[in-house]
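User: Run a structure prediction on this.
Assistant: Running it now.
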Amino acid sequence: MILAANAAVGVITETNAEKALEELRAYQADVATVLRNGCFSILPATELVPGDIVEVGVGCKVPADMRMVEMLSHQLRVDQAILTGESCSVAKELDSTSAMNAVYQDKTNILFSGTVVVAGRARAVVIGVGSNTAMGSIRDAMLRTEDEATPLKKKLDEFGTFLAKVIAGICILVWVVNIGHFRDPSHGGFLRGAIHYFKVAVALAVAAIPEGLPAVVTTCLALGTKRMARLNAIVRSLPSVETLGCTTVICSDKTGTLTTNMMSVSKVCVVRSVHQRPITDEYSISGTTFAPDGFIYDASENQLEFPPQSPCLLHIAMCSALCNESTLQYNPDKKSYEKIGESTEVALRVLVEKVGLPGFDSMPSALNMLTKHERASYCNHYWENQFRKISVLDFSRDRKMMSVLCSRKQQEIMFSKGAPESVMARCTHILCNDDGSSVPLTMDIRNELEARFQSFAGKDTLRCLALALKRMPEGQQSLSYADEANLTFIGLVGMLDPPRDEVHSAIHSCMSAGIRVIVVTGDNKNLYVGKLVRLSI
């Protein structure tokens, strides 16, 4: 019965492990836009071969490892968190790297299979498919199992060797001690007596061997494997369960492992009024996923019934919806909300939905009557229908900001978003939250905003963006970098990639067991370590 149960558990866990490994195929693209016979056509990704020219754009899953050959936009950014754990998208370029022994992060001219394009368009040549890709090498490494003796196996081997020596010594001693009885007449001779006591010694050895030990050990390992399987652990062999008992250090990836890999806006800072203290207002936003569910609270932790009645929050929603190239959608198969594009931009999309709309459309009851597919971007679509996009200045590393020119009722407005230090340096006015008026940005207010920015980025470990607007001359149809001056500051948003709910108990359990936890991340060490340390405490 023990052997049958062991076999059943082994088959089940091995099958589950193989299924988990096969899920890596979900990160492979299904189709690709390939240059064949002088024109681009859509073909199954499985038909790609090295040397093919492939075109990729926003939302495309890279079908193979490819080298960039042509840029079709100002920039190309790729989310390769699934491969490297980087929470920020990576800018790709045509120039090859000069680094020796380059790792994945150094190869900025390579598009890796399974990663997702979040901004821009480009063409690339296929250099690796299947198992010859970076993702394929991970799968091959997981499939290869090296036969290495586990600590339990070593202990059992040592115990077996020691027990064999002790039993052999005792048996020889028993046989030697009874040499005087070999000649006993009841045995029928010296030789028969020696054989009799040899049988006694062998019987003693057989009795001393713990026949039940292997069955007990196997049963314990099978129970441990079953318990780990319930916790979604990949277990390929029973002895690997025991190895966890000897763990002293755990190196864990951060993005998507300790965190949800779902960027969300958690705080907003706006200027209330220049005539009274405090100058700024701070709002907190609930909800840490891509679902458009959450509420906005003021500094006194009172929920805002109608957030769009606040002029700054209303203009933040406008700017977040229009100065945005991402997409938020609902996947009915997975029953979850998914992103296409930059995580920070999708976080702004979700904020727009939480702010709501002015007038009747902002009523929660009206929004809750929508289907999840309609609700995903209802408010964003409202603002996109209210304004007509005319021109866009894409994000660049030197400016660290993005701007879009929009028109509504014969009035042109430019919305901008970007790094707080870059946007605030270009602002000359601020939007007041009390009455919606625009007043000059004084040095005192600038210092107050910079202090709040430092608090968001340092103490609260948030990733920050500043939003601004500018009224443009009527009839303007294009933007230039010179237009990004004399802006009106709207507000500062702070977002985070929240830790998973189970991280607190997991880190606490590791610390209680004397296990050291090391977070492996490419982010700034102050950005998330403080958050995780507070969770562990």
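Residues 29-144 form a domain with the Calcium-transporting ATPase, cytoplasmic transduction domain A fold (CATH 2.70.150.10).
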